Amino acid sequence: MINFLLLPILIPFATAIILMFAPKKITFQRTVSMIGLIAATVASFTLIQRVHTLGIQVVTFGNWPEPFGITIVADMMATILVTTSIVIALFTVWYSFRSIGIEREQFFYYPGVLLMITGVNGAFLTGDIFNLFVFFEVLLMASYLLSVIGGEKKQLKESIKYILVNVVSSALFVITVALLYSVVGTLNMADISVKIAEIGQPGIITTIGVLFLIVFGLKAAIFPLFFWLPSSYAAPPIPVIALFGALLTKVGVYAITRTYTLFFVHDIAFTHTLLLVLSCLTILAGCIGALSTFNVKNIIIYNVVIAVGVILFGVAQMNEEGLMGAMFYITHDMLIKAALFFLVGIIVVITGTANLKKMGGLIKTFPVLGWTYLIAAFGLAGIPPLSGFIGKMLIVKGGLEAGNIWSSLWILLSSLVVLLSVIRIFIYAFWGEEKTIVPLAERKSYKALLIPSVLLVAITVFYGVGAEWITPYMQDAVDVLIDPSVYTDAVLKE
Amino acid sequence: MEVVMAFVIGFLFMAAVYLILSKSILRIIIGTSLLSHGAHLLILTMGGLDGEAPPVLADGVTNMADPLPQALILTAIVISFGVTAFFLVLAYRAYQELGTDNMDEIRGKLSDD
């Protein structure tokens, strides 16, 4: 079936449309969105197997010859990210049942989530630069809805800024695409790659490369462009933050990775050094932020910024280890960030506050939550055999191989800061003397929230322990990233 | 012709940046509209302005305008229209709830609670 690779986009989209017919029927909303996401999960895992056995899957709409129609390309990197985002959406929807509140559920919350997943998956799978812009807008518009849904004062304040930043970055994206079109005269990503290779990346293409870095850096929150992220992500309810923190910035990271491994590979000394410096500064900014606050949500939010820096550091190396590490780390980070936001959300429900100084002694009453959180925290910091280890190890190895010794040491040091920032939550919230907790009647949802969180942490543990089984798939992804001709040959069928 | 367009687009971007940096939400939204106008004109200009006939198949027409940028603009216009509508309603709601349209007064800070 040649259209199989469209299913991860089409299933969430169709489900969202069905859900819009009966917004007030909560059981219907929950059941249909779960069924849709489970179907999408099955489809995306099947797609991974197909890409692994048959190679890169390509379909061009309307049977047009290759550079002329819109192409959807499922290489291993895109497929792995699609699968991860669908799994995260599945768990978030499950977690939302007891945490998002009935008013929001009745006001198009689940359609919003599913449309965002449509946009995210489309952005991962598309092979056309303008189509990438359109899918960015699909996911951004759904994220505007999710960030403001409920209409609290704080959400209204922060949504205005969030939308403004994204409107400006979208306009920049259009401008950059226009400039690129005037130079190479095509929009198909494989064709652009071939055309740039033919003209050997003159200065104007490098300029466009830096413009793309600004555009996608605004979405991904890299160093000078991360200013909007901490306050915008702090406003919406926890499941929405989990979705945003796990998926949205990673789409920007994916787009940077794709353009910097497919288009702008002929002047690495400039473009990739810039990326390297910016990623190190991103890590620095995130570390300072993560240590600066006593708000549990904000600590994890700043860790999102750190992780973006670490992944882009791996991409900036442009060698096999660095890219392999970046692939391992981006998947790990999507899973673990969602899990950490879930766990932190439970802590906030139990204690009724997000301030660490007002918590304490939870380990006696909630041991399962405490130990699960500790495992997730160790996983985030990259303690072997947990999930963050192999990615960071390969990234550092790639950095050392490329001769960037000091910045590689900087990555290792940042792991200590990450560990310190999340262990602080453990020490303040779970140790010490017991402080007031919300009475049982108001937090009946504890068990219902704990089950998806524990399962997601279990998946990350499995991801870390089972790295050997995952490596062949990651190898497929890196083969495409390291050699653009694999991608262009598959799409243009030369 | 392209040079004239470049100056016009540059002026639109300048005005947009100036308006976006102002304090009132409505001025900011006007700024984002000007920004998208500039971006759309830029696509049109970057596609080349040398075609004479509209891109419609007819007998004897050889020198058509490039149809691709026009399709891109059409898409981008609809998208920015949707986003602007959402943004305007959000500004209206924010004015109702917060009682101000001054960006200084709706500044948020990361609180510890």
Automatic annotation (TrEMBL), chain A:
Pfam family, one: Proton_antipo_M
Subcellular localization: Cell membrane; Membrane
Any one annotated GO CC term: plasma membrane
Transmembrane residue ranges: 6-22, 34-52, 72-95, 107-126, 132-151, 163-184, 204-228, 240-257, 269-292, 299-318, 338-356, 368-387, 407-427, 448-466
Domain NADH:quinone oxidoreductase/Mrp antiporter transmembrane per the UniProt entry, residue ranges: 128-414
Coiled coil: none
Keywords recorded for this protein, A-Z: Antiport, Cell membrane, Membrane, Transmembrane, Transmembrane helix, Transport
Recorded topology in the membrane: Multi-pass membrane protein
InterPro entries: CPA3_Na-H_Antiporter_D (IPR050586), NADH_UbQ_OxRdtase (IPR003918), ND/Mrp_TM (IPR001750)
Domain of life: Bacteria
Keyword Repressor: no
Molecular function via GO: antiporter activity; NADH dehydrogenase (ubiquinone) activity
Database matches in NCBIfam families: PRK07691.1
Protein name as it appears in the record: Multiple resistance and pH homeostasis protein D
Annotated organism of origin: Kurthia zopfii
Classification of source organism: Bacteria, Bacillati, Bacillota, Bacilli, Bacillales
From TrEMBL, chain B:
Residues annotated as transmembrane: 6-21, 28-49, 69-92
InterPro entries to which the protein is assigned, alphabetical: CPA3_antiporter_subunitC, NUOK/Mnh_C1-like
GO cellular component: plasma membrane
Localization in the cell: Cell membrane
Membrane topology category: Multi-pass membrane protein
Pfam families given in the database record: Oxidored_q2
Protein name: Multiple resistance and pH homeostasis protein C
Lineage: Bacteria, Bacillati, Bacillota, Bacilli, Bacillales
Gene that encodes it: mrpC_2
